[in-house]
Structure prediction request, 83 residues.
Amino acid sequence: MFCSCTDALIKGEKGEIYVPMFNRVVEYTIHLENEVMQKTYPIEGDDMTLEIQALINHNQSTHTLQDSKKLQETIERIREEAK
Prediction:
């Protein structure tokens, strides 16, 4: 599965995330103990400016400020538990 210098494999206690072409993420696969999920995010354009705009447009339509706050709280909790 992990096959080139642009692939990423993130391993954790409950599974792993495989990202082909981590420098231009258009898809990734989450492998959990009893489940495999494939996610795709088509990127509009072929340069960084259009990629950033596509991400902004996507995030504005799917994530709220409350989502961002929950994510921040989760990151802080994980950071504290890791100490």
User: Anything to note?
Assistant: The beta strands are 8-11, 15-19, 27-32, 36-40. The chain has two helices and four strands. The helical segments are 48-62, 65-82. The mean pLDDT is 81.
